[in-house]
Amino acid sequence: MTTKNFYPTKKIGTFYPPQRVLMGPGPSDTHPRVLSAMARPTLGHLDPVFTDMMEELKSLLRYAFQTSNLLTFPVSGPGSVGMEMCFVNMVSPGDKVIVCRNGVFGGRMIENVQRCGGIAVVVEDKWGAPVDPQKVEDALKQNPDAKVVAFVHAETSTGALSDAKLLCEIAHRHNCLTIVDTVTSLGGSPLKVDEWKIDAIYSGSQKCLSCPPGLSPISFSERVVELVKNRKGKVQSWFMDLNLLLGYWGTTRTYHHTAPTNALYALHEALFMLYEEGLEHSWARHQRNHTALKAGLETLGIEYLVEEKSRLPQLNSVYVPEGIDEKEVRRRLLADYSLEIGAGLGDLAGKIWRFGLMGYSSKMENVMLCLNALETVFSDMGKKIEYGTAEAAAHYAYAANPLPQQAAPVKAVAVA
Question: What domain of life does the native source organism fall in (predicted)?
Fold first, then answer.
């Protein structure tokens, strides 16, 4: 009989991660205040002090989403769990759902519809283009029995921003509810849930909120709450059943699951920092840093994938210049500068880079580090470079686009 060795095959000690500058598609750099919040004493998830913090967290999320929806809270899990929660609660077997796909994450929506037993009617757009409102209108006319329209507001795989307000207007004209992915837009681009009449929305903690991955902010309108309460069949997921979660995130505090307390401290601090800065100031900061990065990249002969009018400031997708080794550039940036950028996905793999300017990562020093590093790496690869030109272009862009004066944020939506 063979004796198994359950001991590690190499010496293992405490893990200390290297310090990176995260300028990829996510996660972003975590702010030191948020890291500090995570290290605070752990409380029980039914402790009255913790539940008081939960109420503040819900209020701060309402501010971030610009909504008065009572059912606004963070799901224990990444943005993919937030996405699945929307679909498993709102889509029953046989339901027809219009799904817009203009990148990777629209494709994941289709998968969710199918796993719920629904029928996905797919509206296709080119990767790098926004969702075409006319195609959505046409699909709804051809499918008058559709129940839901689902689309990605900010497509992380391409950096394309779609017109969420108009798409929701079209959906409601055809008596459809909406599911909107805002994983990359929350905190970084204008987003107004109540004004745009979004029914179900989900995001992620790790992008423009500068919080570690693992939580998915989510919000549901009263229309969705009524739909879920009146479902004929049970929601297929016990963990994501809104009827059960209402008890925990509502007022009764009925035990549902052990909430990730320290992760919620971190999100509370991240949202409080967003509130301190003010949403409009945060949106302007992301736009300003994008403008500076773009000015520098253009001096290096780098072109954008997405047309300017539909371009996300916090996710810059650009074509790899001819004659440049895409993988080697990313390797050199990581090895020599501890700087991470993202590669392309799907059909865009090997063709583009994705530069993230999200949350705490969206700052002048990161823009300048990135441009300086690219100049050096490109030069080493044989590309003719005039050193300092990219940084100079970025400086001129900063000078031409000062941030607006930071005003006190509006009062957060009161806790119900």
Answer: Bacteria
